[in-house]
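Hey, I'm writing a tutorial for new members on how sequence and structure tokens pair up, and I'd like a real worked example in the thread rather than a made-up one. If someone can provide the structure for the chain below, I'll link this post from the tutorial.
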Amino acid sequence: MRPYRAFDSEAVYRAGVRAWEAGDRIAWAACANELRRRSSARALELADRLRTHGEGGALRRGSREALCEVARVAAMALPTGGRGRHAVYVVLLHEMPGSPEWGFYVGMTGRTPEARYAEHLAGVRDGKGYVRDYAVELLPAVYARLNPMSQRAAEAREFELAEALRAAGLFVRGGH
């Protein structure tokens, strides 16, 4: 049963806030669950804010789920991949000094993103060590539709993807 299904996301969020303030944790949880079931970035943001209502909302602190969804949506604006053996990839970073709680690393490779990620973790050709030291996971939901491509296209797409994520307000390393 989904009592808030017919309401728009903002109305569900407001109902959840009222439920929290009234001490009705069952209605509050129903609102949070309804928002989590929706696929828009705004609904996920509201769900995170509602789950942490007393703390001011998780997205402002860097909610992992909402930020990954924002990254996925930002990457959708870029053209899909074509032919070639090169790829771009995105790695979720956590708790880098001097940065928000969550961030992203954008790179390109002539290998598979999984093989390149394994090299990063092993410290092979790892540059400044962002991925080795702060990686959480690869985010194929963000980059998979962009691959494969030629080396020249990958070099350009790496920069375009990093700029698209930055334009969406996300913290990004790499993307040279």
